[in-house]
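Follow-up to my earlier ticket, as requested here are the two runs.
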Amino acid sequence: MINDINKDSLFSEYYKQWVEVYKRGAIREATMSKYLMTQKWVEKLVPGLTIAKLTRTSYQQLLNDYAKEHERQTTLDFHHQLKGAILDAVDEGLIERDPTRKAIIKGKTPRVKKIKYLNQFELHTLIAHLDIKEEPNWDWFILLVAKTGMRFSEALAITPSDFDFAKQTLSISKTWDYKGEGGFLPTKNNSSVRKIQIDWQIVVKFSELVKNLPEEKPIFVGEEKIYNSTVNDVLTRHCKACGISNISIHGLRHTHASLLLFAGVSIASVARRLGHASMTTTQKTYLHIIQELENKDVDLVMRTLSGL
């Protein structure tokens, strides 16, 4: 790289090469797409900025301009993706001082995001409406996601061998590349590799379903390309037919977690079951539910103390 790039080169060109050399093939495609998006924003916001002119001031202005159209967390991610390349440029002698030092992260006020999920009655109604046939179909898939809280790509990758019906467990150790050419991929993170308990209804139903299926082949993957929207359309039809709230497959994951939290399951246990990297992710995602539970706890505390 140092032979191709000098201090008078465009920063956007340096960053483009850096992404290709250090990131291409080393990270997941979904993560790679974020780096490529950052590259496009650099080309858009500072098309004429050379490496020599990359100072703390010019870098802060780049962050400020990006922050005008993005929330603070998105701007922070943008900063981290740029910082890796810039620190390498410092190491290579292309930049004398680290321009990212003491960078101030700004951003638009986040929109209030209330996740969509079904209550217990609605979920029971949905499950009762599913058309569970002898062969695998998307209704079977909806049932499995509702009962396990798996991510869409994780559920697609499930094979008969992942079930341990005797111990009532399901191993989640891979995902399916439905956005690309198909095939197994690693999970989102190390915490996503997990073994979860499954209820006896899933044991009875799926042990019958998979007994004649290939052990190592995904249960729900056929010859045709799979789209998230296809499964969401099936789920939408069920929701409308049942007269319940319309949610997505990802909404079933939220439903699963929400019902567990309302039932009194600890945040730590829910985080492990969902495959979150930390409890912080779970707390952020389900903040409003946790706040509702805390309000109930306050009422319980007051009733307990007043009875003393």
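Run two:
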Amino acid sequence: MRSRWFGLVIAALAIAVSIWAYPQLPPTVATHWNLSGTPDGFSSRLMAVAIIPIVLLLMTGLFQILPKLDPRAQNYAKFFGTYWLIANTVIAFMLIAHAMIVASGLGYSLKIDRLMPVGVGLLFIVLGNYLARVEPNWFVGIRTPWTLSSDTVWRKTHRTGGWLMVLSGFLVVACAFLPHGAFIPVLVAAILIAAVIPIVQSYVLWKREQSK
């Protein structure tokens, strides 16, 4: 999971799945579902099997070049393994989403409304566990004017943000076991916990640092 070439392997796997599934898919494939798990968005089978593999290739290329574009490129050597673990976790999540679209198109009965909260929640949990290891940079992590202005503020904010993201992940996973009407309130609460609190904290820490 820490290899910089993991994304190419995952993209190749997604392409192989698409080539295998394409002749077996109906002309129209569901690619989006509402909160009740009912399909409400459809694409041609070509688009259904092509979009995510293309996105995976683009993401893999983007993750390769971001460290070279970053003004703080020297910091990536300090968290190289963590950077690629985060990148590859996102890439692996995209592969799972691709597999779910293909499986649904092939006629397998999937409870998308239950599976997606679990997948998104687990993604948050994994990313949150490694967030505190991310060194100051311009592309990955909690990037506010205040974290980018102070390495101390960056590290303190990311320690808090990591724990909050894990907590948010568990809240999102819980959505899979709650009534459909509870999904939006819990999701909003999770986003507020994971995003707003660290942003506010970074400003407070920066102001406190400036006052000294």
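The only thing I checked on run two: The first strand starts at residue 28 and ends at 33. Let me know what else you need.
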